[in-house]
Fold each of these.
Amino acid sequence: MTESTYDRIYKTVHQIPEGKVATYGQIAELTNLAGKARLVGYALYRIDPQTSDVPWHRVVNAKGEISQSPFRNGGDYLQRSLLEQEGVQFSPQGKINLRADRWQP
DNA sequence: TGCTTGACTTTAC
DNA sequence: AGTAAAGCCAAGC
């Protein structure tokens, strides 16, 4: 079977340990897609969190903020809740301290 | 078959 | 510090 580009991305995201977060650029790099961070974001946009066991909530942008899609409409709150339950600490501005909670394989 | 959009990143001013 | 532009690939119409 042929591993699609997204399949590799899902696998990489699924490798993120609990209580850690990764940036799109990092996921792209680990997936052999360095420089194509948009593909990672787009991949997570197309999947269904209900049918997929991909911890999409552990993926944030380079600023440590939670990216949201117009379709999710407020899903950032859910994502933040999930991360907080895993032990991820948020800054007063609602940002994540990437230097501390960033996934380092 | 071709153009537009989209959960991004990085560099530069 | 915040704003602007370029680069990349895939799916949708």
Amino acid sequence: MRKITDRQKQVLEYICDFIDEHSYAPSIRDIQKHFGLKSTKGVKDHIDRLVDKGYLNRKEGTARALKVIRDDTKAIKKVPLVGTVAAGLPLLAEENIEDYLPVSADMGRTEGMFFLRVNGDSMINAAILDGDLVLVRPQPFVEQGEIAVVRIGDEATVKRFFRFDSRIELLPENPDFEPIVYWDEDEDIRVVGKVTAVLRTLE
Amino acid sequence: MRKITDRQKQVLEYICDFIDEHSYAPSIRDIQKHFGLKSTKGVKDHIDRLVDKGYLNRKEGTARALKVIRDDTKAIKKVPLVGTVAAGLPLLAEENIEDYLPVSADMGRTEGMFFLRVNGDSMINAAILDGDLVLVRPQPFVEQGEIAVVRIGDEATVKRFFRFDSRIELLPENPDFEPIVYWDEDEDIRVVGKVTAVLRTLE
DNA sequence: CTCCTACCTATACATATGTTTACTTCTAAA
DNA sequence: TTTAGAAGTAAACATATGTATAGGTAGGAG
């Protein structure tokens, strides 16, 4: 049920290209002309099927109201930038959202992900500088040594994460900083997610 | 000539919101209803002015063919990723384009800009690692000490740029690498542009 | 063969939508 | 006061566009 025919794929691609170029969707007759068809019916059939199969969304009776759902090529998703979070969790409360930044969809699932502005130089040797933005995928555990966002009490921090039995070590990437060590029952500490990308703006 | 009235701003905002929500533009009558107007004329006037003032683009006679140019809030632009360029200039030949990455429009003008994949560790102390992507704004000159993309013969390199009279020095940010020094008439050397942002994907 | 689907032509209809003409009201600048 | 622009009402008009009806052809599955 999922697969589309070659022809349907051609139509879908044309729709995507058209939107890319004009930033509005083609009309049925636009598509008709492009493929040199002599009737609008064929085009509507294709669109109907693309809608059925979940590739397109449409508002019936409305001009140029096509929306591409699954492109199978690429797309852009908007990821919220949560400020330099310190106190005031939960992280994703709407009040904390400063902005939305575009991310390539081929970076994988972006649902739930968010950007966080890094505060301080503690990760400088991992090439993460003060003010850089990190893209965070929320997850309760990370692999040994991965760079993670960790919540300690009301503070959020970015560090390399290690766990030895019930001891948790958060290692900065800067010799001027000391490792942070916790024991399980010690404090309210929790892995928020894993750092997936780094974005820095110069100038 | 540039400024828009409060009412026009309201209309523009509504158009942006509508597009965000539906991913296609509102019709004139959609706007009319939203503002509780009893004629389409007023709306068309507003749109005409927004077009005149460069905030909107429109295909006349075409349904829902509005395109927001200047949002004054935010937008997304796509910037081409030129591969790990070495030989094979000119840089922006279409064959070199690997992909397009989304960039926030509030990063300024993106016309002509491109992403470049950095090769090697020579800028490691500027927190630019092997494989990182740098966003480049083409420009023939850069300020003293700025990080620039420089073309030497058929190779492109990312370095800190200095010029002393007719001597050009390209300084790596890694003690293991030696500065590169050129004289004006020495070789075919040219500043391609300035590094404006750094993007790194982990995992 | 028969049935079904993908794909297409031909023609027509209904309405969604951009455009226009003619006026009115209000505010601010000259 | 006069003038000009912003904002809006009213009533049409023209066409761009989605939708529907009636078939037609080709190929695969049963």
